[in-house]
Design brief:
230 residues, alpha/beta, Rossmann fold, two-stranded antiparallel ribbon, 8 helices, 20% strand
């Protein structure tokens, strides 16, 4: 059976090309987790985001995590969609976001302003997160571990390095984690690290209907892992 990452027939793309006009525009999201947010969306590559289909598999976990958390660290924040959702639930000054791409950070700031927040209502940094020189470690972010948090990690293969920068955070059990893994080995290593610290882990499988409406994924093994303690 062909991988969903290699299926050439993409019905949503066909509809998009025939009906939706490409080009970046500010649009109010009408469906899914991000409903009600105003985001810069280009139908050329982001139709699933607009229709509430992008990473739908993670929505239930994100809703639960945002409801019980009081702060968020978004590592690999992209243009800020999930961070803005968290702020919608928990208010300004609750998110530390890290995104290496200047272009993505610029759009993140545009999205922040488009939703009525100021440029200082979320911390948006271009610093990498991890254990190496010049990296920001999870344990050095000044997180309030008397309050529950939510950490999302999407770093294209550096997920273990990010987690290893936060042994104190992991031991505290005061954060729920959502990690995108980019190989079976990385997934296994992340699971082992979480479970060694007393977390319950769950693999979030790609939905069955991704055979019809696949997402573009950079590698063959690319899916989300959640980890919760307590």
């Amino acid at each position: 059976m062909a991988s969903v990452n290699h299926i050439r027939f993409r019905p949503l793309s066909a509809v998009k090309r025939s009906i939706l006009k490409p080009g970046p525009r500010r649009r109010e999201i009408r469906f899914g987790l991000l409903k009600g947010l105003n985001l810069r969306v280009d139908f050329q590559g982001q139709a699933q985001l607009y229709f509430g289909l992008y990473e739908t598999e993670t929505f239930a976990f994100c809703r639960a995590a945002a409801a019980r958390a009081q702060w968020m660290v978004d590592i690999g924040a992209g243009t800020g969609e999930l961070a803005l959702y968290f702020m919608k639930i928990n208010g300004p000054d609750t998110v530390l976001a890290f995104e290496p791409s200047p272009g993505e950070r610029e759009i993140f700031t545009e999205n922040l302003l488009a939703n009525g927040w100021g440029g200082d209502d979320a911390s948006i940094s271009g610093s990498p997160v991890g254990t190496g020189e010049g990296c920001q470690a999870l344990d050095r972010m000044g997180l309030d571990l008397t309050k529950r948090g939510f950490v999302k990690i999407d770093v294209d293969g550096a997920e273990m390095d990010v987690l290893e920068s936060g042994p104190e955070l992991l031991r505290s059990g005061m954060a729920d984690f959502l990690v995108e893994t980019h190989s079976r080995d990385l997934e296994d290593r992340c699971v082992a690290l979480f479970e060694a610290n007393g977390y319950r882990t769950d693999i979030i499988p790609n939905a069955w209907w991704r055979v019809v409406l696949p997402e573009r994924r950079p590698v063959e093994h690319n899916r989300w892992l959640s980890a919760v303690r307590g």
